[in-house]
Design brief:
Strand content: 15-25%
CATH superfamily of the largest domain: Peptidase S8/S53 domain
Number of strands: 20
Structural class: alpha/beta
Helix content: 10-25%
Distance between the termini: 39 Å
Radius of gyration: 33 Å
CATH architecture of the largest domain: 3-Layer(aba) Sandwich
Number of helices: 13
Largest sheet: 7 strands, parallel
CATH class of the largest domain: Alpha Beta
Strand order of the largest sheet: 6-7-5-8-9-10-11
């Protein structure tokens, strides 16, 4: 095995030549045996490292290896050298004795070494989650393509893909339950359309939220009930909205939904030529799990209500009261801003509602979209480029499912509702106010593809949005869910032995120095409390039996040299947990303190979040440890035999070169 020397030796031309040959033979003949390893890698940079050229000298490699060997040995780290990296770094592979769960602990130990500038996991990277639904490539609204208004759901799906425990209520025309791409995603819902002609299903309110069709015929327009309505085919509006949120994603069929797992609660409030405000407000209360006279209580209260509907009026006190009660019940209200090109419609203009305007693919304001001070944010709604989604081939009553393209603020709103659903999947304790603030605080900046800028009283027309008239920015689902993920508790663990430190990590192990664990510095997000603490001992002399459940724990003094490692898990009032580790090296009286008997298997430093082990690798390795480190245990027998032979040749040549040359 090629080992970096710990002592300087005189370099002769022959030694350099033979060492170079050995190194090349090692790489060509032995190193490939390591290619199928994959125990995980890390990147380290020492404070005295230099940036190596593309063809570093053997001596420079040896010197770097000597430094690395010293660092690995004194920290009891089993790792082997793979290659020199850029900007003075080195890539190392964990040895066979290091478990995946211990790697973060070892990284933390190395990071605390005074000669280490930094050390990080050499983690795997991958492309963002890409559904196999055939039409996904046409769903620009869900993607993060550069310089478009796509809402970055594809990036968000690598953080969270939703939860079946989250419910989004879609107050609309109902749904076609037989739509294949909605199979398994729909709850039973309710029909709140009270006017029988408008309902178009032969009765008023009932427990059937199916969409019978909302076509208006020429004959209908001659009746008093529909005299002011336009002739049109059935829209299947609610089915399209439900599909935007929850079409079965990665199902190898049709389109992708914005949330892979959420449940949709279809609530029918619209029929032929629209609906009534009283029906909508009753449906909002019912959807949030509140009582509505004469209607059984909703068994599946919604986390989010989507309203792709409205009227060109200001928010009434009744509407505001309903919104406030729904918010107080823990349900967020998302509403389409309107398609008249003017000011925001009601109920989108009520307080504490996320009102959503529409953008075209290039980021410009969709020509029809309402704008103004009541807009919360903008999301993809389409104009020149429509949104692809679920429809039905029936012009009156439903027949077969189909794919259609639509535009409107009606279809921008459900993307915001789906974002809120993803956030609730990460953190069920988020309040409506917290969801609103996090979505708005993490929007993307507006683009400027047009020559003109939108103004307050502009009316219809494409233009460049600004925060003065288009809200906080463009919907950025990735930013919103990342923000929600950051609200978990933080376990802050520390350990000391009566505060008597000798070098930053050693403590004297005597009866006068009991071990003290402290977790009271742990924290939770606003509005929550710590429900429980759980301390366990990971390694070292056994000072703790079982699990300790107080924030601070006092233990007896250690009696032998060892690395004491403890884990603290903090759980908050909504069930979110976080763990961290703390390590303390103790040295028994009379010990020289050079190498405790046990190796720490957890992190020191308290607030480090454990990372996922990402094994990679087909790189070859060369041991960089001399003595205490170990080489990973992956060298093959043929490789050892070959290296032994080469080393014998090396010694023979070196011996020959040291003899005096006879004069002729």
């Amino acid at each position: 095995m090629l080992t970096f020397r710990s002592k300087k030796q005189k370099l002769t031309p022959l030694r350099v030549l033979v060492t170079t040959v050995l190194l090349m033979l090692w790489i060509l003949l032995v190193a490939p045996a390591h290619a199928q390893g994959g125990a995980g890698q890390f990147i380290i940079k020492l404070k005295n490292s230099v940036e190596l050229s593309s063809t570093p000298s053997v001596r420079r490699l040896e010197r770097e290896g000597e430094f690395l060997a010293d660092v690995m040995a004194r920290n009891n780290i089993d790792a082997s050298w793979l290659r020199a990296g850029s900007v003075g770094t080195h890539v190392m592979r964990w040895g066979g004795s290091v478990r995946a769960g211990d790697q973060q602990a070892m990284l933390n130990r190395l990071a605390s070494d005074p000669e280490v500038e930094f050390v990080i996991e050499d983690r795997a990277v991958r492309a963002f989650a890409t559904p196999n639904d055939p039409s996904f490539l046409n769903q620009w609204a869900l993607r993060s393509t550069f310089n478009t208004a796509g809402a970055k759901f594809d990036q968000a799906w690598d953080v969270v893909r939703g939860s079946a425990d989250v419910v989004v209520a879609v107050l609309d025309t109902g749904v076609v339950f037989e739509t294949p791409d909605l199979k398994g995603r729909l709850l039973s819902g309710y029909d709140f359309v009270s006017d029988v002609p408008t309902a178009n299903d032969g009765n008023g309110r009932d427990a059937n939220a199916a969409d019978p069709g909302n076509w208006v015929s020429s004959a209908d327009t001659q009746t008093s009930a529909f005299s002011g309505c336009s002739v049109k085919n059935s829209s299947w509006h609610g089915t399209f909205v439900a599909g935007q949120i929850a079409a079965n994603t990665h199902s190898d069929s049709d389109v992708a939904g914005a949330d892979w797992n959420v449940k949709v609660l279809p609530v029918r409030v619209l029929g032929k030529c629209g609906g009534l405000l009283s029906d909508v407000l009753d449906a909002m209360l019912w959807s949030a799990g509140l009582d509505v006279p004469g209607i059984p209580r909703n068994p599946n209260p919604a986390d989010v209500i989507n309203l792709s509907l409205g009227s060109p009026t200001t928010c009434s006190s009744f509407e505001q009261t309903v919104v406030d009660r729904v918010n107080a019940a823990g349900t967020l209200v998302v509403a389409a801003a309107g398609n008249s090109g003017g000011s925001v419609d009601s109920p989108a203009n009520c307080n504490n509602v996320l009102s959503v305007g529409a953008l075209d693919r290039d980021g410009s304001r969709a020509s029809y979209s309402a704008i103004g001070s009541a807009i919360s944010l903008m999301a993809p709604g389409g104009f020149s480029n429509g949104l692809v989604g679920l429809g039905n081939s029936g012009t009156t009553t439903p027949t077969s499912a189909s794919l259609v393209s639509k535009t409107g603020t009606s279809f921008a709103a459900p993307l915001v509702a789906a974002t809120a659903g993803l956030m609730r999947a990460i953190n069920p304790a988020l309040t409506p106010a917290q969801i609103r603030s996090q979505i708005l605080a993490n929007t993307a900046s507006f683009l400027s593809p047009r020559s003109s800028t939108c103004t307050v009283n502009q009316g219809s027309g494409s233009c460049n949005c600004t925060t003065a008239v288009c809200g906080a920015g463009m919907l950025d689902t990735f930013g919103a869910v990342t923000s929600a993920k950051g609200t978990r508790p933080v376990a802050n663990a520390s350990a000391s032995a009566n505060g008597l430190s000798t070098s930053g990590y050693q403590e004297s192990a005597t009866g006068l120095n009991p071990v003290r664990l402290r977790g009271s510095a742990s924290s939770v997000t606003a509005g929550r409390s710590i429900a429980s603490y759980a301390w366990t001992q990971v390694s070292g002399e056994q000072l703790m039996s079982g699990t300790q459940t107080t924030a601070d724990v006092d233990l007896p003094a250690a009696t032998s040299s060892s690395d004491l490692v403890f884990q603290l898990t903090v759980t908050d009032s909504v069930g979110e947990s976080h763990s961290s580790f703390t390590a303390l090296r103790v040295v028994a009286s009379g010990d020289d303190g050079s190498s405790p008997s046990s190796v720490a298997s957890a992190s020191s430093g308290g607030t480090t979040t454990p990372t996922t082990d990402n094994s990679s690798g087909s790189s070859s390795s060369v041991s960089a440890v001399d003595g205490g480190g170990g080489g990973g245990g992956s060298t093959t027998l043929p490789g050892l035999l070959l290296m032994s032979l080469l080393m014998w040749v090396f010694r023979a040549l070196a011996s020959t070169s040291s003899k005096p040359i006879a004069q002729s």
